[in-house]
Specification:
The longest helix has 13 residues. The protein has a 5-stranded parallel β-sheet with strand order 2-1-3-4-5, sandwiched between helices. It is globular, with a radius of gyration of 15 Å. The protein is built from 6 helices and 5 strands, in the order βαβαβαβαβαα. The protein is α/β, with parallel strands linked by helices and 143 residues long. 29% of the residues are buried.
């Protein structure tokens, strides 16, 4: 795993999507994953360090926008990217009103997510990008 001082927390109830995001993001970040908001609230201690939350809107129980208030209180240096396949003008406005830092409509590309995370963390664009890092890792494994 690459040196990954930046923390990304994924809250996504679809196990396949959660695993895909984890496996992709762990190439560049320290990643913690949850399947619902309740688990995050119970298991992730409040922290004042920078962290990016990638939160699905449509979660079981507490939705992603309801979770946003907890994230703002417990993680003052945290940034949130709300992901959803349900974005319309109303949801986009609700996300903005809730203090969400960015939104991504599903489906999105993994490099686009990486770009958003890097923007929120104030990091330069990744060079090489995660696709190239994956290709390099595969070449090393074969060599």
């Amino acid at each position: 795993m690459a040196d990954a001082p930046h923390h990304v927390v994924v809250v996504e109830d679809n196990i396949t999507t959660n695993n895909l995001l984890r496996d992709w993001l762990k190439l560049a970040y320290h990643v913690t994953c949850f399947l619902d908001a309740e688990s995050l609230r119970k298991l992730l201690p409040a922290d004042d360090q920078p962290v990016v939350f990638v939160v699905d809107y449509n979660l079981p129980g507490e939705d992603g926008l309801s979770l946003q208030a907890h994230l703002q209180d417990g993680f003052p240096a945290g940034k949130t990217i709300l992901i959803s396949g349900l974005f319309d003008q109303e949801l986009t406005q609700r996300a903005e009103d809730a203090g969400v830092d960015a939104t991504l409509s599903k489906p999105f590309t993994l490099p686009t997510l990486d770009e958003k995370i890097r923007e929120l963390l104030g990091l330069p664009p990744s060079k090489p990008n995660l696709v190239e890092m994956t290709k390099e890792d595969q070449q090393v494994d074969r060599g």
